[in-house]
Amino acid sequence: MLVENNVALERLNTFGIPARAQRLLRVRSPADLAQLMASPAWPTDAAPSVFVLGGGSNLVITGDIKALVLKVEIGGRRLLEETPKGWLVEGGAGESWHDFVVWTLAQGWPGLENLALIPGTLGAAPVQNIGAYGVELQDRFHSLDAVDLRSGAAFTLDAAQCGFGYRDSVFKHAPSDPRGFGLAGHALITRVRLWLPKPWRPVLGYLDLERKMAETGIDAPSAQQIFDWVVAVRRAKLPDPAVLGNAGSFFKNPTVTPEQCADIIAREPKVVHYPMADGSIKLAAGWLIDACGWKGKSVGNAAVYEKQALVLVNRGGPVHPCTGGEVMTLAKAIQTSVYERFGLRLEPEPVVV
Ligand code: EPU
Question: Cα–Cα distance between 245 and 313 in angstroms, integer?
């Protein structure tokens, strides 16, 4: 266990925002954490002075981090159980999400193909309930192990206890949350288990995948085929963080009532909208931002991606990187203009620290 001082964070967040951590510890096993929590290096007021960092792919850093940064690097992946009903797989929280997807497919355990190429770690996946092309993490989630950063106690949560919602979970809510079980800042996820059911069934409802089926004439794709399509669609639409820093979608897609939607359609007939199972309507935030003319606009070196208005990018690269302040100023200007035109408040998706 080695606490590093004054650590540069630009390579530890996919935006490439420059900042420093006063102190950073790489947590390679739950034992590392237990040892740290018992040592004098552990902040006495514990949880609020600790910041848990995964792949840094859903993060905007607005200044140097004074809290002790715990960089989760717990590895390992294995099949826990195979039954006639499915495969139960487990991985360490520090595993790369995409590598985990590739590994499961290579083993012949399909089910995660729609979630290919999402940046970040396995441990961060439940925090924001990652989702793409018709599948959300909660659809494949079994359980996770975590450590309470106040008491040091290990605990396990099942799907219901994680309180999953659209890009949401208990890990994004403060303990003071009215739902009464927020864990933001108080838990470090160590292992995640996923359940991949048999028989495998493709999830193909998403428009981009239907287009691929029409283009190729393949109407019964394999899991590997869907994986390849998802990778191709993402590469065409979304910037590769290794080339152009970003944190994926910057805002959540807002939901409205059918009445609110009808009102917006009356004024803006082309608004992209999807009916949800609960009767609400989801609007495409990317379309709303695009309609307000934001593509390519910038504040300093933070810019709106030219091909997808929902993604904010670091246009200055590693040499002239944008700051977190520039990203947030741009985000606020976008929120204001969408509110003025559509009366809708866009909610940011990444964690802002
Ligand atoms: N659109 C525009 N202009 C734009 C951007 C989008 O008109 O600049 C329109 C598109 O033409 C499309 C609609 O808006 O009709 C929705 O766009 P898209 O299919 O690209 O999906 P999205 O709603 O922007 C969501 C997720 C993505 C996920 C994709 C695919 C959210 C916030 N984002 O994006 O997730 O990959 O669907 O399932 O839900 C992420 O969370 O970081 C992320 C990338």
Answer: 6
